[in-house]
Amino acid sequence: KMSPADLRLLVSRVKKELGSRLFIPGHHYQKDEVIQFADARGDSLKLAQLSASQQDAESIVFCGVHFMAETADILTQADQHVYLPDMRAGCSMADMANIQQTEKAWQYLMDMFEDTILPLTYVNSTAAIKAFVGKNGGATVTSSNAADMLNWAFTQKERILFLPDQHLGRNTAYDLGIPLDQMAVWDPIMEELLYKGPLHNIKVILWKGHCSVHENFRVTNVEQVRRDYPEMKVIVHPECSREVVELSDISGSTNSIINAIKQAPPGSQWAIGTEMNLVKRIIQENPDKHIISLNPRMCPCLTMNRIDLPHLAWSLESLAEGQPQNLIQVDRSVATDAKKALDRMLVRT
Ligand code: 13P
Ligand code: SF4
Asked: Which residues are recorded as binding iminosuccinate (predicted)?
């Protein structure tokens, strides 16, 4: 077993050896021990765009979760290879929509609404779901462009099926002025549409999925902050529930949270509702402000955290030895359709 110091030396040595032939993107939710070695850090949108622009890189070691590595593979050239330091770094939200469930839901909805629906999927989804969406004229979205993409989608069709995060879908549609009573929920387990009013009123069909990290920020947490710190502003990610977003002062993507706090006046007070590693980093980087996690028990993304220094070092060592492990390779036919969905987003961003 190597010491952390030896692991850091190993990572630095391989990075130096491979130079621009190696690119390491790191999501903001990654641990400090990993993100310190990232060539670029970003939210899911920025990392997707950056991966597409790294023409020199033969190898991309993705410090993030599986769907992000798949996206990088889809957007890069055939001779560029993407690796994930730990194959167990998945996303519980992406796992909430599989392709069989999606095809069943689509059949049901097409029978009900005929050709009036366009599918949109959060990038937090499998390549197969992105391919399904691409094939059916739809696009991907991220938390930073969801509103623009939803607006675009309504220029195409009357109704939207939004996968797999009901909260991002609901919060974004609500901000665009669509009332909650025009949103239905599709339950993929029960295979039923949850909706009370007349069907023709439905504008948005939300897939019943959620992020297990952001769901941990609750109404009671906001109420507690309001009691304990009357001056404090509450800022949350739109993967939080509608009720929590409603009670907060601001909601926004990972990048907009980072920027809002960076630009806030010294002495200002913030409770942040997003992933623990990012909240800790924002606290360190803004010593002139009083910042806490909206949920005092913090909220780590356990799968993001599976990428740790030992896994990164192991991944780089295997690469340097010419026996790379954990290749992420999306099937060609899936990748072609998934790319259509991603490209429809990237040209509008
Ligand atoms: P963004 O990076 O788009 O803000 O998404 C947050 C997230 O949950 C990533 O898994
Ligand atoms: Fe998935 Fe949520 Fe973790 Fe992001 S934070 S990877 S959406 S489980």
From this structure: 27, 44, 122-124, 143, 237-239, 254
